[in-house]
């Protein structure tokens, strides 16, 4: 993709200006249209045929999800930009490329753009998000009807609790989600399979930790212990079998 033609749709002028300014950092991006409601967004998609549409979800006239559904016949790649994480399941059912939570950071936006570019270069559908080479940086957490999108860097460690996973949040994650932990409707093994193995290491049968947050580690009586940033009063035991994974990780740093 030599150039990327973009549409921005958000009913808040300040949000449109901010995203436009952030996208302006990419020389190959051309913002061809902006819309303040869903109806205008759909019309402008049909008129300008952009490569990518950044859509807010809660907009007048038509929601961003409705816009994506009605624009499904076009080749536009949909990226949702919203302050709410509970629309995630509906959003991804529209084959969206990405789901960005406000406030969007420059790094997170850059990863989104990189993912779209990579899809264009390889000829793979942009909505085919999960593969060995895609920079997946989020975990979708479902518990009953509730859904949250959590950045990997917001996860400190995961704990197996009676068939469920408790996801303990890092300090930045706690600020973002206003709570210390979240419950995930899946097993620890299933959670481990979708987390980056160079960042999240299996400490034991009941714990997976974000190795980037380890601030102290020691061995006593042939047993390894680690302490994570923000969890100084809660040392985590590493099984003897898995201790070698941690030593290798630190040796490779």
Query: What sequence of helices (H) and strands (E) makes up the elements?
Result: EHEHEHEHEHEEEEHEHEEEEEH
Distance between the termini: 34 Å
Tell me the number of strands: 15
Number of helices: 8
**Overall domain count:** 2
> Could you say what the CATH architecture of the largest domain is?
3-Layer(aba) Sandwich
The CATH topology of the largest domain, please? Answer: Rossmann fold
CATH class of the largest domain: Alpha Beta
Mean pLDDT: 85
Structural class assignment? alpha/beta
* Binned strand content: 25-35%
Which parts are unreliable, with pLDDT below 50 for 5 consecutive residues or more? 124-135
Into which percent range does the helicity of residues fall? 25-40%
Tell me the radius of gyration: 20 Å
Overall morphology: elongated
> Strand order of the main beta sheet, please?
2-1-3-4-5
CATH superfamily of the largest domain: Response regulator
Largest sheet report? 5 strands, parallel
What does this structure look like?
It is a single chain. With 253 residues, this protein is an alpha/beta fold. It folds into two domains: 4-122, Rossmann fold; 138-252, LytTr DNA-binding domain (OB fold (Dihydrolipoamide Acetyltransferase, E2P)), CATH 2.40.50.1020. Helices cover 31% and strands 32% of the residues. It has a five-stranded parallel beta sheet, sandwiched between helices. The protein has a five-stranded antiparallel beta sheet with strand order 10-9-8-12-11. Strand 6 and strand 7 form a beta hairpin. The protein starts with a strand and ends with a helix.
């Amino acid at each position: 993709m030599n150039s990327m033609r973009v549409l921005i749709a958000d009913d808040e002028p300040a949000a449109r200006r901010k995203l436009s300014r952030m996208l302006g950092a990419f020389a190959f991006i051309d913002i061809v249209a902006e819309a303040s409601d869903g109806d205008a967004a759909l019309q402008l998609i049909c008129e300008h045929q952009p490569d990518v549409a950044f859509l807010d979800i809660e907009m007048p006239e038509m929601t961003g999800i409705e816009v994506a559904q009605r624009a499904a016949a076009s080749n536009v790649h949909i990226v949702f930009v919203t302050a709410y994480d509970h629309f995630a399941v509906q959003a991804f059912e529209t084959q969206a490329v990405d789901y960005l939570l406000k406030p969007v950071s420059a790094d997170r936006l850059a990863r989104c753009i990189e993912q779209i570019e990579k899809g264009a270069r390889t000829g793979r559908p942009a909505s085919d998000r999960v593969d060995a080479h895609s920079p997946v940086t989020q975990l979708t957490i479902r518990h009953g009807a509730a859904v949250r999108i959590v950045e990997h860097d917001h996860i400190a460690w995961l704990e197996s609790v009676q068939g469920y996973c408790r996801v303990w949040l890092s300090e930045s994650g706690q600020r973002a989600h206003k709570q210390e932990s979240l419950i995930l409707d899946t097993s620890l093994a299933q959670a481990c399979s979708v987390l980056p193995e160079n960042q999240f290491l299996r400490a034991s049968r009941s714990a997976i930790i974000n190795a980037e947050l380890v601030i102290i580690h020691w061995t006593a009586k042939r047993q390894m212990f680690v302490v994570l940033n923000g969890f100084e009063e809660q040392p985590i035991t590493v099984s003897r079998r898995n201790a070698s994974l941690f030593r290798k990780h630190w040796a490779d740093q």
